[in-house]
Each structure stands twice: as C-alpha cells, then as structure tokens.
From TrEMBL:
The keyword Transmembrane applies. This is Sulfotransferase domain-containing protein. The keyword Transmembrane applies. One of its GO terms (molecular function) is N-acetylglucosamine 6-O-sulfotransferase activity. The chain crosses the membrane at residues 16-33.
Amino acid sequence: MLKSQTRCQLANKRSLLWLMAASLVLYIFYRISQHGTPATHQGRELTGNKTGVSMTYASVIGEEVHIEQVTNATNVETPVPSKVYTLSEEEIIKESDTESNEKVSGLINNMSKDIVEDELRANNDSVLEDQPHILLLSSKGRSGSSFLGGLLNAQLGTFYFYEPLYELSQWHLNSNKNTVEGLSQIFYCNISSHLTRGAIASRYRTIIKNSYLDHCGGRDSCMKNLNAACRKQPIRVIKTIRTRVSWLTALLEDSSLNFKVIHLVRDPRATLLSQWKLGWKTSAGKSCKDIGEDLINGQILKDTYPGRYLAVRYEDICAEPNIMAKIIYSFLGHTNLPPTVVRYLHETTSGSIHGKPYSTIRNTQKIQQIWREKISHNQLLEIEEKCSDVIHSIGFNVFGTMENCRNLSMPLYANQSLVKYFTYQLETQESPR
C-alpha cells in the first residue's frame, strides 16, 4: 500500500511538472508573439513583434543600443538615422514593451521597404527596369547632402553608401585615382581593394544604410557578405562630399557603368557658417574656389554626357521640396514620385530637431535663410569678399551690409536669367517668415 501511494505521489508530481513545463512553453511563445525574441548581441535582431502592426528592432554596438521602431504596415519607410541610447538588456525589453516610452516617442515611425516592396511593385512604376545608380556629390559639407541622400534612398531597391570614402581623407589618400577606384568598386558591388574595403570596414555601421545591417552580424561577417548583399538591390546610391567633379570623367567613360550624377550646391555663406559653428577649420577662399571649379566642370560634364549630370541648389529644395523631388526623380527616369519618396518628404520636411546638426528632419522653408539671422558682421564681410563671384554664379545676391542681410525683404535670389548652371525651371520664392 505504501509503495502504491508513493507511486501515485510521483505520478502526480510528474503530471504537475509537465503541466508547469507546458505552461512555461506557452508563456514563452506568448511573450515572443508580443515582444519578440530574447535579446542577442553582435548587431543581430534583438526584439521584434512580427505578428502585429508594431515592430521594434535594436542592435548593439559596444555598449550602445540603436533602437528603431517600425509601425503601421501600410506605411513606407522613412530612412532616418537611429537614435542612440545606452541601455541594459532588461531596459531593451522594457523599451520594446512600451510604445509611448519617451525615449522612443521621438523616433519617426518606419516600415521596412522589404515588407511593402512586392505590393508597390505591382501597383506603380516606383521600381523601374534598368534604373541608373546615383552619385550624390556635394562640393562641401553642410550643404544638405544628408537630407537629399535620404530622399534618394527612400526609393525601393536601393543600397545606400553614406560617405564610404571618408577614411581616405583621414589617411591623406583622397586622390583622384583612389576615389575613382573606390566609387567604381562600390557601383559594381565588387569591393575588393584593401584600401576601399578598409575605408568601409572602419565605419561600416555608419556607411551602410541598408536593412542588411540588421542581420549580417559583426564587422567581419558584414564585410564578408557585403558584395552579395549589395548585388541584391538594383540601385546603388553613393553620397560623398570628398569627390571633385573633375574626377568623374573616368567613371562616366565606362560604358557598362550606368549611373547619374546629382551635384548639390548651397550658398557658401550658409555652408561656411554651419561649418564654423561645428568647429571646422575651413577657409572661405579655398572653399569657394572649389565650389566654382566644380560648377564649371559640371557644365562640361553636362555638355559631354547629356542626361547624366544634374546640378541642384539646396535652397530650391528648401523652397519647393515636392517640386524639386519631381525634377530629380524625372532626371532619374521616373514619371511619378514613388510612394516611399512621398512619405519621406511628408515625414522630413515639416519638423525640426533642435541641437541635432546631422539630423535629416527639418522644416525646410524655415532653414533656407536662417543663416541671415545668425551670421556676424565679420563673417558676412569675409565670405562675401572672397566668394562674391561664386555667390553670383549660384544665382544669389551679395548683401554687402548687415542691414541688407538682416532685412528679409531683400531677396536672396538674383536675376535667374543670368544663371547657367541649373537647367530646370523653378519659380523661386522667398521663404515665408
């Protein structure tokens, strides 16, 4: 009898253990369905609710966690740099549990382009056959190239390289030969030379703007499979401020390389003021000399390679972002703006992030001439003295005095009939104040 009771007790305990185990398994599956898989490191997916309309992803770089929230599966991606926080693994899970958390609420709600790609391909012409690759070149930094790069990256099927050759300038190797070799390798997705691979590997998480980073692992594995991942996308976009226009002839002579150049130019008074504010040691004379030479060489490229070079002014994009987006995408072969680009414009041209100099979120109309309210007397005189010819070439007025500069009724735009570098027609208007 005692043995029989013992057996019954053991059987009851086993049943209870099985019941507890089954309950635990069910709870784990429930938690995964609500909050994603447990956190992992090395840049892999940390959390993700793929069963609902909200997804949260995080990747770990050292002790920093990059968190991106993606919501509303009917929307399209807005490629905006992730916000950075330092969190523990427990905090990561907590962040993903609360959509209204203050640290996450400031992020733009995105949706992965991969999720909507098939649907959009079927419903519109946003993905063209034989699309050209794009080289976005700005003569100088702080010219709005990050914003325009995001606009170009917003189209489907892009693999975006953000300043891939930055390290060449740091290593004092930013020559015509090295730059052309690097750009060619990136466009062909054949990144093979030690110099180009090293430049990208050193800052790969900043340079590579693609969902490939979500699952490629650490630096070695990401670089190992980079060429294959790059080839999966029909369009490569390269944004650079470290390439001279005159260096592009060799690339344009390559008949098998289908790419177009978008050359972004900004009023040097705004550019230099922004650079000096960030502590850049920039010479006004040298800067404006480079801008002028790039405009002249761009005119040569436009005449020599019709349909492959377009110069645009940042101020025009600020004044009429939607019209300029249509002009740019028409240059790239689109008859209509892709829906993902429309969404990007909506999300990024009506807000502002104060104290974030590298943000792509901005009220473009307010930014267009804000420099006129901030530039000092000495700064204005120095820049206009050394850059008056370039300012006129771009199509703007030289103010001469602080009184004229501060007087916003004095127009920024000069007589546009005298400007030869910008081929599109745009009815320029002063920003409303």
